[in-house]
Amino acid sequence: MKLPSPPLPKALRRTPPRPGENGGRNGRRNGAPATTPTAKDQAVEGVAGVVGWLDERTGGSPFLRGFLYRKVPKGTNWYYTLGSATMFAFLSQAVTGVFLAMYYEPDPSRAYESASRITNEVFLGEFVRGMHRWGSTVMIILIFLHMGRTFFFGAYKYPRELNWIIGVVLIVLTLLMGLTGYLLPFDQRSFWATIVAVNLNSSGPIVGPYLADFLRVGSEFGPTTISRFYALHMLAVPGLIAVLIGAHLYLVAKLGTTAPPWLKAEKKDLLREEV
Amino acid sequence: MADSPQKFDKQSRYTEGRGIAGAFEGETVTRRRLMEGTALAAGGIATMAFALPGLGFALGPLFEDTNPTRWQDVGAESDFNDESYVPRVLNIDPEVGDAGKTTIYVRKFNRDIDKVVKGQDPQPYVVISTRCAHLGCPVRYIQASQKFVCPCHGGVYDSQGKVQGGPPVRPLDRFYTRTRGGRVFVGDRFSLNSQLERFAPRDPSNHLDGLWQYIYPSRPTT
Question: Which of A1, A60, B112, B168 has the most CB atoms lying inside 10 A of its own CB?
Answer without folding.
Answer: B168
